[in-house]
Design a protein that fits this description.
With about 600 residues, this protein is an alpha/beta fold. The chain folds into 3 domains: about 190 residues, FAD/NAD(P)-binding domain, CATH 3.50.50; about 140 residues, FAD/NAD(P)-binding domain, CATH 3.50.50; about 160 residues, no CATH class. Helix content is about 40%, strand content about 15%. The protein is built from 18 helices and 25 strands. The chain has a 5-stranded parallel β-sheet with strand order 5-2-1-9-21. A 5-stranded parallel β-sheet has the order 11-18-12-13-14. Strand 23 and strand 24 form a beta hairpin. Helix 15 runs antiparallel to helix 16. About 40% of the residues are buried.
Length: about 600
C-alpha cells in the first residue's frame, strides 16, 4: 500500500483557506493525498471587514465563517489547535495534545501590528488585527460615550470624546469612517453633545491612501473633511500615554482612544519556525513561494516576504494571499508529479476603500469609482469571494448583515432594504391569495380539465373534436378576459408543441392539482416563499399562453409581497422554518464534533 502524502496548512486566513479549497478540489478522488487545515479558531475571519465590527455597523457573526461550512463534504480535515512548535527538520507540527506530520507544509499564520518602537503604543493603544481587537475597540468606544455622558469636567470629557486613528492607510481610513457614522447614534443614545466628538487621522507621511491616485485621494479627503474628520499629515507619533498622544513637533493631543493602524509585520511565532527570515518579521520565500531554506515548506499570504519587482516585499493584501496560494498549489502538484514549477506573478485587479457604509473610493479593472458605485463594487467583490468559499448560503448571510438587517441606514441603500414590518398584516392577504388559487383549481376541475379529451393548455395538430371545442371555449374565455398577449410568443409555442403537447393531459392535470395544492399551502402558511414563487411561475405561464388578462397581474404582485415571511404568523412556517434551518445547518456543517473530542493526526 503506497504511503499517503500529508499536506498540512497552518492558518485559516485568506491564503490558507484558498489553498485548502484548491487542493481539495484537485485531489478529490485521490485517496493517497490527505489535507489538514490547522487554526486556533474554528472559523475563518473576514479581516477586511473588522472595521465594521469596531465601528458598530455589524455584529461579530458577520465576519466569522465556520470552517465546517467551508469544508463540509470535502477531504480537508479541519483541526482546531494551537501549534506550539514547528519542527521543519523532522517535518512535524506539535501542539499541547498531539503531533501533525507533513510531507508539505503551507505556512499562512498571517501578520500582526508593527509598533515601530513608539513608546506606549502597545500598552495604551488599540490595534485592529483580529476579531478580538475589533470587539475591544467597539466596547471601548461605547464605554467612552457612556462615561462622557456623566463627566462634568470638560477637559476630561473632551479627552473621552476624542478618537484618534494612527495611520492613513486603508484600515485607518475605513475605521475612522465607521466611527464617523456610529458617533451620531452613540451621541443620541447616551445624550452626548455630538459637536464635542472629535475624530482624527494622524499620518506620518505627507499623504494618505498611497495606493490610490491623487484625484481619488482628494475626493476621499474632501468627503472626510465634510464629515468633520480632522486629517493630520506629516505628523509622526512619538509617544502614547493613557491620556494623550505626543507628535514629533511637540504637540500633545488629549485622548483616551488611539487606534493604531500604521503597518503590520510577520507574527512573532515566525521567528521560532527554524526557516529563513525576510524583512519585517516575515518568512523569506523564493519565486515559487517556497521557503528559501526548506523546499517542502511553502509560505502563503501576509507572512511571505518576496521581492517581486523592487526592494519592497509583495503587498499584504487579500489578492496577494489568494495568488500566492494559487502558485503554491500548482507547485506542490508539480513537485509530486515531477513537473516544472511555476513562478509567482502578481496580477492585482485594483484597490477599494470604504469611508463608512455609504461612501467609498475604488480602482477596479481600470475603472475609477467613487460614492455609490465604489461601494456597490466593494459589495460585489466581497460576495464573489464568499461565493467561492461557501456558495449562496454565505452570500445570503452577507446580504442579511450588510443590507437586510443594517441599522441606522448605514448602507448604500439606506434603510430601504432593512425596513421591517410585522408579518401579521400579511395573513389576510395570504389567505385571500390562497383561497383564490383554490377556487381557480376547483373551477378548472368543474370545467373538465382532468378529462383526457378536454385539452386547454395546448392546441395540437391532431386535436379531437372534443379538444377543439374545449380550445374554442378557452379562447372565448380568454377573449372575454382581454388577454395581455394576443397570441403566445413563437418561442413559447415552439416549446409547448415540442415538450408539452405529447403529454398535454399530464401537464394539464399537474396545473390543476398544482393550483389546488398551492391554494391549500398558502391558506395553511406552508412553505410560503416557495409557494409564492410557484404562484408567480403559474401566472407568467398563463400570460405567455395568451390565456390571462391584466387581472392576473395582481396575483404576481401579491405573491411578491407574500415572500416576506407571510407564513410565520398563524401559519405552519412558524414551526417548519426553524426545523428547516436546523436541518440545513446540520447538512452544511456535517456532524458537529466538539473541539475537545477531535482526533489528532499522529497521536
Amino acid at each position: 500500500m503506497p504511503k499517503k502524502t500529508q499536506i498540512v496548512i497552518l492558518g485559516a486566513g485568506y491564503g490558507g483557506v484558498h489553498a485548502a479549497k484548491k487542493l481539495a478540489k484537485k485531489y478529490k478522488k485521490d485517496d493517497n493525498i490527505e489535507i489538514t487545515l490547522i487554526d486556533r479558531n474554528p472559523y475563518h475571519t473576514l479581516m477586511t471587514s473588522l472595521h465594521e465590527i469596531a465601528g458598530g455597523r455589524v455584529d461579530t457573526d458577520a465576519v466569522k465563517v465556520d470552517l465546517r461550512k467551508i469544508f463540509n463534504k470535502t477531504k480537508v480535515d479541519v483541526v482546531t489547535e494551537d501549534i506550539v512548535k514547528v519542527d521543519v527538520k523532522n517535518n512535524v507540527l506539535k501542539s499541547e495534545y498531539g503531533e501533525y506530520h507533513f510531507d508539505y507544509l503551507i505556512v499562512g499564520t498571517g501578520s500582526e501590528p508593527a509598533f515601530f518602537g513608539v513608546p506606549g503604543v502597545k500598552e495604551n493603544g488599540f490595534s485592529l488585527w483580529s476579531l478580538e481587537d475589533a470587539v475591544k475597540i467597539h466596547d471601548h468606544i461605547e464605554n467612552m460615550f457612556k462615561k462622557a455622558s456623566r463627566e462634568r469636567n470638560e477637559k476630561k470629557r473632551k479627552a473621552m470624546l476624542t478618537f484618534i486613528v494612527a495611520g492613513g492607510g486603508f484600515t485607518g481610513i475605513e475605521t475612522v469612517g465607521e466611527i464617523m457614522e456610529w458617533k451620531t447614534t452613540l451621541s443620541r443614545d447616551y445624550n452626548v453633545d455630538e459637536s464635542e466628538v472629535r475624530l482624527m487621522v494622524v499620518e506620518a507621511l505627507p499623504s494618505i491612501l498611497n495606493m490610490l491616485d491623487k484625484p481619488s485621494v482628494e475626493k476621499a479627503e474632501n468627503y472626510m473633511k465634510k464629515k468633520n474628520i480632522e486629517l493630520h499629515k506629516n505628523s509622526p507619533i512619538i509617544q502614547v500615554d493613557p491620556d494623550f498622544i505626543k507628535l514629533k513637533d511637540g504637540t500633545e493631543i488629549p485622548t483616551n482612544t488611539l487606534i493604531w493602524t500604521c503597518g503590520v509585520q510577520g507574527n512573532e511565532e515566525a521567528a521560532s519556525m527554524g526557516v529563513d527570515m525576510g524583512k519585517r518579521g516575515r518568512l523569506q520565500a523564493n519565486e515559487y513561494m517556497q521557503s528559501t531554506s526548506n523546499e517542502n515548506v511553502y509560505i502563503v499570504g501576509d507572512i511571505a516576504y518576496y521581492e517581486e519587482t523592487n526592494s519592497k516585499g509583495i503587498p499584504q493584501i487579500v489578492e496577494t494571499a489568494m495568488q500566492t496560494a494559487d502558485t503554491i498549489v500548482d507547485n506542490i502538484s508539480a513537485d509530486m508529479e515531477h513537473k516544472e514549477k511555476v513562478k509567482f506573478k502578481s496580477n492585482y485587479h485594483g484597490f477599494m476603500v470604504s469611508i463608512g457604509g455609504r461612501y467609498g473610493v475604488a480602482h477596479v479593472g481600470g475603472m475609477k469609482l467613487t460614492g455609490f458605485f465604489a461601494m456597490a463594487m466593494k459589495h460585489l467583490v466581497d460576495m464573489h469571494y464568499l461565493f467561492g468559499i461557501g456558495g449562496f448560503n454565505l452570500i445570503f448571510k452577507y446580504l442579511n448583515h450588510e443590507f437586510f438587517s443594517i441599522k441606522e441606514k448605514r448602507s448604500i441603500m439606506g434603510g430601504h432594504l432593512a425596513a421591517k414590518s410585522s408579518t401579521l398584516w400579511l395573513v389576510v392577504l395570504r389567505l385571500f391569495v390562497g383561497i383564490m388559487w383554490l377556487i381557480e383549481g376547483i373551477g378548472k376541475i368543474q370545467q373538465g380539465w382532468l378529462k383526457a379529451d378536454h385539452i386547454y393548455i395546448v392546441k395540437t395538430a391532431a386535436a379531437s373534436g372534443a379538444s377543439e371545442a374545449a380550445s374554442n371555449t378557452a379562447q372565448q374565455a380568454a377573449a372575454q378576459a382581454v388577454p395581455l398577449l394576443s397570441q403566445p410568443p413563437e418561442f413559447f409555442t415552439s416549446f409547448m408543441n415540442t415538450f408539452v403537447a405529447p403529454y398535454a393531459h399530464f401537464f394539464q392535470v399537474c396545473v390543476v392539482l398544482g393550483e389546488v395544492a398551492l391554494g391549500l399551502a398558502l391558506i395553511g402558511g406552508f412553505l410560503t416563499f416557495l409557494c409564492s414563487l410557484a404562484s408567480i411561475f403559474l401566472c407568467i405561464n398563463f400570460i405567455l399562453s395568451a390565456m390571462a388578462g391584466k387581472e392576473i397581474l395582481w396575483y404576481i404582485f401579491a405573491s411578491i409581497t407574500l415572500m416576506g415571511g407571510s407564513g410565520r404568523a398563524f401559519g405552519l412556517d412558524y414551526y417548519i422554518q426553524p426545523a428547516i434551518s436546523k436541518w440545513w445547518n446540520n447538512l452544511r456543517r456535517g456532524k458537529q464534533t466538539p473541539i475537545y473530542k477531535q482526533n489528532s493526526i499522529g497521536m
